[in-house]
Amino acid sequence: MLDAARLRADFPLLRQREHGHPLVYLDNAATTQKPEAVLTAIADYYRTTNANVHRGAYGLAIRATEAYEAARAKLAGFVNAWATEGVVFTRGTTEAINLVAGAYGRAHVRAGDTVVVTAMDHHSNLVPWQILCQEKGATLRMVEISEDGRVDLSDYGRALERRPKIVAFPYVSNALGTVNPAAQLARLAHAVGAVVVVDGAQSTPHLRVDVQALDCDFYALSGHKMLGPMGSGALVAKPELLDAMPPYHGGGEMISRVWDDHSTYNKIPHKFEAGTPNVEGAVGLAAAVAYLEGVGPERIAEHEQALAAAAIDRLTQIEGVTVYGPRDHRAGVVSFTYGDIHPHDIATILDQDGICIRAGHHCAQPLMRRLNVPATARASFYLYNGLDEVDALAGALVKAGALFGYVPA
Ligand code: PLP
Known about the structure:
This protein has a seven-stranded mixed β-sheet with strand order 4-10-9-8-7-5-6, with helices on both faces. Strands 13-14-17-16 form a four-stranded antiparallel β-sheet, covered by helices on one side. The protein has a two-stranded antiparallel ribbon with strand order 1-2. The protein has helices at residues 4-8, 36-49, 59-78, 93-108, 127-136, 153-160, 182-191, 211-214, 239-244, 279-295, 297-316, 343-351, 365-371, 387-403; strands spanning 17-18, 21-22, 24-25, 87-90, 114-118, 139-143, 166-170, 195-199, 218-222, 233-237, 255-258, 263-265, 321-324, 333-338, 355-356, 358-360, 376-380. The protein is α/β, with parallel strands linked by helices.
């Protein structure tokens, strides 16, 4: 396992205490904390390099543009993008998927076509497709999940018989922790001629991602979930698809020439980056990528799997606790309920011990319906969490249970 205590020292916020206790931050699937290296990169950018990018003829603006484009190249290398120009900076996964639905989807999906999603998709990888299908008169086909929280491959096969135009799924589920067989799902979808959109919000921070090996067509990620700044992220796409797509947002920077009644467009990726971009976000995200590379995605994945396994082991020993999702092929997300205690109550009680977990539907209401629960409590781990924090979680849960009359086994 990683030396979590040593890594934690790189994260200033984690030195804080909450309600007199050391802060135990277990809400990493929602957002992660930022290491000093990211904070410094952002501050240095503003102290030494800030100017608007791509437009300036003076040295400072050129250096700002270089910093922004170097960040793009860094991120491209991290996920083995098809090409650096196939990385479009966005506000995060949500905007990246809306870009694909709004530009590629609008241009290619027609009445009677099918778009496939899964019952474990985050609303970000569901609602944009609902909007598209409603607008076009197309059908949205949701693939069911198995009892243990995996994509039901038989139902996936049946959905593909409709020869969908687009197939979208999460690499890792934010609510169950399931690591989907993304390369296999992409291969099957391509065999029926579909374009494949992977929601990488929960995979990019936690696994070694190689989009070319996955062989998807579009891959969305969020910087803030991988130690980077809020409002940073990207769409990583096959350049030829981006080239052929109409623009998404109109405005400055995405054009080539503008006449009174029409325009021609800039080359990719700029065609999809209208207006002044989040340069600070890109620079901070590049610093986050450097930090993650320093630790090593494989070691991070191994560390989180060990924490999740320990947490599942501890939690399932508490009478009344149900843990959702598969026992293998999973990431460091542990969703659970505790008898009839409302997950919000669990989260509020744990907060008194300085433990931050999430409670709610995790932006996956169709999934919650299938689990027959309105909400779950969710602990999600990252590289700076240790086994001591799994102990703290389990201990605090037992205390919470006692308040509600549950007796630990
Ligand atoms: N997809 C998944 C699986 C997520 O977990 C999240 C965020 O929780 C998103 C998409 C949306 O990400 P963002 O809010 O950064 O756009």
